[in-house]
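Hey L., structure's done. Input below.
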Amino acid sequence: MIFHHTDGQVYWNETAYYRLSSADVELIEAATNELWARCLDAVQHVIDTRRYAELGIPEAAIPLIETSWNDDHPSIYGRFDLGYRTGEPPKLFEFNADTPTMLLEAAVVQWKWKEEVAPAADQFNSIHEKLIAKWQSLREYLREPIHFAHTENVEDLMTTTYLRDTAEQAGYRTVGLHMGDIGWHHIRGFTDIAHR
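Output:
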């Protein structure tokens, strides 16, 4: 991981961690599942009541949203940012759908730190395994190779590379490319640098 500093300082504290009980973990997991269900309800509500304009969604995007929703297009992952105090319900700060920020830190770096600092401890973290399982569950939706595009940003490149690795561990052939290498063909649609 090469984007671990902000303003010359490591942006996390390696001397601190949270110790959760099984009850804490179960409460957080239940709340997360409930929040996901409520997000799906909210999407259905926006579609049913056509509240797109209130959310700043352009008219041209509406048919794509509705097709994706009605055809049940899959989502890979999302990130809930929660506040939690033991014994109280978690508080939702925000939900980021299919956004890669902090994925590498949460899925891999955190686990590696635990293995080095507290190898006897356990960790409620199965992000890596669940990503691989998600890719495996999407066989009917995806054609190979799967393309993973990134920007010039180092965090974007590393996160996209990590997602690509989880897809490969699930058995897919993949191609990595820069956003600028995505082309357009008037018949075939989007293409990569090999004109696929």
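Residues 5-191 form one domain. The chain is about 40% helix and 15% strand.

-- N.
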